[in-house]
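Dear H.,

Thanks for agreeing to be a second pair of eyes. The structure we're designing against is below in token form, covering all 460 positions.
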């Protein structure tokens, strides 16, 4: 998942205290800030196996289980503007420390939820955790963009995003190992008491570790705060979110972000349940014939793919985005961004249609590969919008960040479709999202470009 920076801009190559930060100091500051990208990527991707786990633990429908993702991504809608105001009033380093403290509080709420087995408390914990991540992104993204020469801002963002992708790749592996061992949801009945207790203990263990690691990260950042503060350029407050509503392209871009994040999250959070279904991999050993995939999933020796094995395979969905980002960065230097996005959205939509219309074992491999084509969509939507929006960069990016709430709403609709028509048929909604995004990319190619000089806004 990605973010933008609402209401805040950073002047690339700026100074702090009237003095240009040295290359070594800026490099050290950038390394410190980049550790934050890994942390929020890892935590965000834990939501995928968590959705599958709570479905069994609390005997939920797909719609109810998807509320976990909705509670997490709703924080972007609620907290983006308050976070922007906070960062504009505090130093970015202070805001980062406050964000990490909020994330620790969210982890502790998750610990309480696991110990008393309360799903409402799980939702509250996820909202608090994501609220901290929202503040963290608002503070850290522009720092990553601006800590160094303006000509290399794109490279720095891509490098930081790569660390974010490493986190999203590893999160589902740990979550599946801790949350999904022995969990079975296909029958729709309640879990065995021992399996339920084990899954709750896994959630408890994961968020206990995370709270400790976040506390260590906060200490690490506190010790390096002087380096970051000296290297960071000054932060200027933006013109306000409302000015973006006067720009047609800011609105179109917000709609595109809404659809993209919603489709990406809906596919990711449903993936383990989808792969585990009998119509896909639930009764097949075909995935274990693929050497790398077999090693990643770790067969339990029982015919078919268990929910835990499927949960580990979800890492490939996010790993594809990591690989696609590296390849896409190279392709974007050779091809027009709107054309590449049109191609990638068309392929992703076609993959969804294959799953809906053909299904079977092959659909599992196709669904995992969608992540490869998701890779460039967020940054390209963001940059295409910024280039064409007549509103300020600050206001435009604020509206785009608010639109990440698509990750809270579209997964609910996909969950409802899965309840009524099955996991494969539910991918018709993401297919529609990708079709609209393809139209957005083609329209961007025909629209006039508004150039800005000197501003760097954050991208995913």
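And this is the sequence the design step returned. I haven't edited it by hand at all.
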């Amino acid at each position: 998942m990605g973010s933008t920076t609402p209401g805040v801009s950073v002047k690339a190559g700026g100074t702090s205290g009237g003095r240009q930060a040295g290359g070594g100091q800026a490099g050290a500051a950038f390394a410190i800030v980049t550790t934050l990208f890994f942390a929020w990527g890892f935590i965000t991707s834990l939501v995928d196996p968590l959705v599958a786990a709570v479905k069994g633990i609390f005997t939920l429908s797909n719609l109810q289980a998807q509320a976990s993702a909705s509670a997490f991504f709703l924080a972007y809608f609620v907290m983006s503007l308050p976070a922007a105001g906070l960062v504009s009033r505090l130093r970015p380093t202070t805001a980062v420390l406050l964000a990490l403290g909020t994330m620790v509080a969210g982890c502790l709420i998750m610990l309480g939820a696991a110990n008393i087995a309360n799903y409402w408390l799980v939702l509250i914990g996820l909202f608090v955790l994501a609220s901290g991540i929202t503040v963290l992104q608002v503070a850290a993204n522009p720092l990553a963009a601006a800590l160094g020469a303006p000509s290399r801002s794109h490279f720095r963002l891509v490098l930081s995003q790569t660390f974010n992708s490493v986190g999203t790749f590893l999160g589902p592996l740990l979550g599946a190992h801790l949350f999904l061992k022995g969990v079975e949801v296909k029958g729709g009945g309640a879990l065995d008491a021992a399996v339920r207790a084990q899954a709750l203990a896994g959630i408890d263990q994961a968020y206990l570790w995370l709270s400790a690691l976040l506390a260590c990260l906060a200490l690490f950042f506190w010790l390096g705060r002087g380096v970051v503060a000296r290297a960071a350029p000054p932060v200027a407050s933006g013109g306000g979110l409302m000015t973006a509503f006067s720009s047609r392209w800011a609105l179109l871009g917000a709609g595109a972000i809404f659809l993209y994040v919603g489709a990406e999250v809906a596919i990711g959070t449903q993936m383990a349940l989808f792969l585990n279904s009998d119509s896909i991999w639930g009764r097949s050993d075909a995935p274990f014939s693929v050497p790398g995939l077999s090693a990643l999933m770790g067969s339990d020796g029982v015919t078919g793919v268990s929910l835990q094995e499927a949960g580990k395979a979800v890492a490939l969905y996010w790993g594809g985005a990591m690989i696609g980002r590296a390849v896409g960065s190279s392709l974007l230097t050779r091809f027009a961004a709107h054309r590449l996005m049109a191609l990638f959205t068309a392929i992703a939509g076609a993959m969804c249609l294959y799953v809906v219309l053909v299904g079977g074992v092959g659909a599992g491999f196709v669904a995992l590969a969608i992540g490869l084509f998701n890779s460039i969509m967020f940054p390209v939507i963001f940059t295409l919008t910024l280039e064409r929006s007549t509103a300020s960069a600050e206001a435009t990016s604020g509206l785009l960040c608010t639109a990440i709430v698509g990750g809270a709403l579209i997964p609910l609709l996909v969950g409802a479709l899965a309840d009524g028509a099955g996991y494969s048929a539910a991918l018709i909604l993401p297919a529609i999202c990708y079709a609209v995004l393809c139209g957005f990319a083609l329209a961007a190619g025909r629209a006039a470009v508004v150039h800005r000089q000197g501003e760097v806004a954050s991208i995913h």
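Two observations from my side: The chain has one domain: 8-456. The chain has a mean pLDDT of 85.

Warmly,
E.
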